[in-house]
Amino acid sequence: MVDKIIVKNLNVWYGDKHVLVNNNISIKENKITAIMGPSGCGKSTFLRCINRMIDLIDDARVEGQILIDGKDIYSDDIDVYELRKRVGMVFQKPNPLPKSIFENVAYGLKIHGVKNKRELQERVEKALIDANLFDEVKDRLHASALALSGGQQQRLCIARALAVEPEIILLDEPASALDPIATAKLEELLENLKNKYTIVIVTHNIQQAARVSDYVAFLMHGEFIEYGPTEEVFTRPRDKRTEDYLMGKFG
C-alpha cells in the first residue's frame, strides 16, 4: 500500500499559540482517512497545511515537512497554484458561486486555461457524474446553483473540486450542515470516489468516521494520539484518551 502523503515533524503556530505539535503521519493512496477529535484540536488547521491554504492566514507559521509523492510541498520550488490544483478542498458549509450550476463546475477549469467549449462541456458533465449529481441537474445546468438543496450544493462543490482532476480531496466537516438523507448520499459518494482519489476528511462525528473511513487518526490538543486502520482503532484503541473520546467522555 502506497503512502500518498507523509507528514514529518509538523508544527504550526498562530502567533504565539502552538496549534499543531510535532506531528508525524502517513496517509495511504486511494483510501479514506478520517481525522477526528474534539473542537479546537487543530483538525482544520492540519487540513489547510496539506494544500497550503494555511499560507493565507497572516500570523500562521509552519515548520516540518509534508511530502506528496515524495516531494516536500513546503520547499521553495513548489508552485502553490499547481499544488492546489492537485489537492482539492471542500469546506464545511456549501459555498456555491452565485452563478449557474454549469459555471460553478467550469469555474476552476477556466481559471486553469480551459477555453474550448466542447472540452468544458465534457469535463463539467464528467465531474457532475462523478459527484453523483448529473441525473438530478442535467435539465437545469444553466439555472442558479443557489436554488439547489444543501446536499446538492455540497455535491456541486465536490464536482467543482473534481473538475480540475485533483489527486487528493480534502473535506472539512462536509456533512455538518446536511440532513441525514443528504449525509448518506455524500458518504456513498465518498466510497465511490476513493477508487480514483486519496481522501482526507475531518469530522467531529465519530459514527461518520467509523462508517466512511479506511484509516482514522485521533487528534487532541494539536497532537495525533492514535492512528491506524479504522476497525482496529475503534475496537482496540491503544491509548486511554482515544478510548475515552470514542465512549463520549469528552469532545
Write the layout of secondary structure elements.
Elements: E1 3-14, E2 17-28, E3 32-36, H1 43-50, E4 60-68, E5 71-72, H2 80-86, E6 87-90, H3 101-111, H4 117-130, H5 134-137, H6 150-163, E7 168-172, H7 180-193, E8 198-203, H8 206-212, E9 215-220, E10 223-229, H9 230-235, H10 240-246
Parallel strand pairs: 3-8, 3-9, 6-7, 7-8
Antiparallel strand pairs: 1-2, 1-4, 4-5, 9-10
Please name the fourth-level CATH homologous superfamily.
P-loop containing nucleotide triphosphate hydrolases
- What's the overall geometry? globular
Extended strand count? 10
Task: Kindly identify the CATH topology.
Answer: Rossmann fold
The portion of residues forming beta strands comes to 25-35%
**End-to-end distance:** 32 Å
What is the level 1 CATH name? Alpha Beta
Taking all Cα atoms into account, the compactness measure Rg is 18 Å
- Report the order of strands and helices: EEEHEEHEHHHHEHEHEEHH
CATH architecture: 3-Layer(aba) Sandwich
Q: Which regions are unreliable across 5 or more consecutive residues at pLDDT < 50?
A: none
The helix content, as a percent range, equals 25-40%
- The total domain count is 1
Q: Could you give a short account of the major beta sheet?
A: 6 strands, mixed
**Strand adjacency order, main sheet:** 6-7-8-3-9-10
Number of helices: 10
Derived structural class? alpha/beta
